[in-house]
Design brief:
This protein is mostly helical and 243 residues long. 91% of the residues lie in helices and 0% in strands.
């Protein structure tokens, strides 16, 4: 009995080392998972904050860009108004002084200046003896009546544009297209006069191509003029609506 009790007394008790090690590893693993979770959440929040900051900066940049564009537009319109101030003042004085006949009076003065220019060209050509200068003066003499009629037409267009500003914008593209076509016709006629003494085939072909397409040029310029007029009025209306 004593031997049995002694055997029971000295029986070794196993140490739970592996169990403690497993518990320690699980606890550190849980701590690592928690830290990783917090870092992931912090990174997600940081990313959202940076995205929000970037969106705010982009919106602020776009707002500043829009304000700068509107300020530049106002400054441009201001410069145009200042540049047109003297011209409008002169037109106002001229039309108010001579009234409805002011375009005719202006055309008469323009015709006198054209006659003076023809005389000066002929005088300069006396020592030079060129061929194209007399051709140019001959063209001007032959179309003197047409130049006078065109001056009267564009003079009255300017007169009505000052008197009826709110309505004339609808006719203005046609008048501008007619002015472009008339200027091109004069240029091609002068080129033909110059080419009469030079005989350049390319110059003659270019002049003929322009003369054959004057009606098409008129239509294209009128369409572009109306597109520009409607776009300008629409942009001005939107700008006034924003203010």
């Amino acid at each position: 009995m004593k031997g049995k009790s002694a055997a029971k007394a000295v029986k070794p008790v196993p140490k739970p080392v592996r169990q403690r090690a497993g518990g320690e590893c699980g606890r550190w693993r849980d701590i690592g998972d928690e830290i990783s979770k917090h870092m992931e959440e912090g990174g997600r929040e940081f990313g959202q904050e940076m995205e929000s900051l970037g969106t705010g900066l982009r919106r602020r940049f776009e707002e500043k860009k829009r304000m700068r564009r509107e300020r530049e537009m106002r400054e441009k319109w201001g410069r145009e108004l200042r540049e047109e101030r003297w011209e409008r003042a002169w037109d106002s004085w001229w039309f108010n002084t001579f009234g409805f006949v002011s375009p005719i009076i202006g055309s008469v003065f323009g015709l006198l200046w054209l006659l003076l220019a023809i005389w000066i060209i002929n005088l300069v050509n006396v020592p030079l003896g060129t061929k194209f200068l007399p051709a140019i003066t001959a063209f001007l003499w032959a179309n003197m009546g047409l130049f006078f009629a065109a001056s009267v037409f564009f003079g009255y267009a300017r007169y009505f544009s000052r008197r009826f500003t709110g309505v004339f914008w609808f006719v203005s593209p046609l008048v501008n297209a007619a002015a472009v076509v008339f200027a091109l016709w004069v240029c091609t006629a002068i080129l033909d006069a110059v080419n009469a003494g030079l005989s350049y085939a390319g110059l003659a072909a270019a002049s003929l191509a322009v003369q054959n397409n004057l009606y098409a040029i008129f239509i294209v310029m009128a369409v572009l003029g109306y597109a520009f007029a409607f776009t300008k009025r629409l942009a001005y209306g939107l700008f006034r609506y924003r203010e």
